[in-house]
Amino acid sequence: MTALTGNSLVLKISRLNIVRENNQRSLTNGNSVAIKLSRHLPPIYALTGESGQVHRPVGIESERDQASLYMATAQDAKDDRISRISSAIRVIPDFPKPGILFQDITTLLLDPRAFKDTIDLFVERYRGKDISVIAGVEARGFIFGPPIALALGAKFVPMRKPKKLPGEVISEEYSLEYGTDKIEMHVGAVQAGERALVIDDLIATGGTLCAAIRLLERVGVNVVECACVIELPELKGRERLGDKPLFVLVGST
Length: 253
Ligand SMILES: O=P(O)(O)OC[C@H]1O[C@H](OP(=O)(O)OP(=O)(O)O)[C@H](O)[C@@H]1O
Ligand SMILES: Nc1ncnc2[nH]cnc12
Hints:
The protein has helices at residues 63-88, 106-109, 112-126, 141-152, 207-218, 237-240, and strands at 2-5, 8-13, 16-21, 24-29, 32-36, 90-93, 101-104, 133-137, 155-159, 169-176, 179-186, 195-203, 222-231, 246-251. It is an alpha/beta fold. A five-stranded antiparallel beta sheet has the order 1-2-3-4-5, with no helix packed on it. The chain has a five-stranded parallel beta sheet with strand order 9-8-12-13-14, sandwiched between helices. The protein has a two-stranded antiparallel sheet with strand order 6-7.
């Protein structure tokens, strides 16, 4: 539904409305303004709703305008989700050791919308990419991996800390921002030739993801990409991954 109120154009799109008022854009819930958007958009525009579907804009002057409008608005909706995710992550100084700025994703999990946005962004990226294995790293990769695996119709393979898995395992050691550790995977959980995505909440030095990649590649799995919610770029984990693609949603918050 579309309505003109004074100099405001209101587009009702599923549960979100867009208002243009005094040359400022706002998202509204019913008639009350909830969020002011800061980025510039073309004068008349569309919005991707919760389903990710792009709604058709009105008053487009040319095919070219229309194409750039779709791109701008899809990007804005994506940015909106990213900023919601970023603001839902809490940062705790000096945990677990002095000098560490701990990125706490438990607050993201308390916000169902931001948590869903996180999963949706990963699923949108990997849908149709023929991925049969989602390998999640203990512990926080166990939170984000399974819903992605279910949405993609892939299996979830836990990469566990030592002595947790009951069957025959292969293991890899790695160094951390604070300490060293080891991860293990059940023999037979994956087959040579499968296409895998490695998921974790965060990349710091990249040691954990590199160990996960080594484990999978030792048994002939093709690791297509690694995906994390957060990257700490100053720790150069991306460089440690070398040519292996890395997809992240937010830089350190
Ligand atoms: O890029 P890196 O330097 O390897 O660090 C990243 C890893 O560190 C954190 O896990 P942590 O080892 O603290 O284990 P936990 O999730 O079991 O607490 C984080 O969840 C990643 O798995
Ligand atoms: N700064 C950090 N915050 C949360 N998890 C981490 N793992 C390694 N470094 C971390």
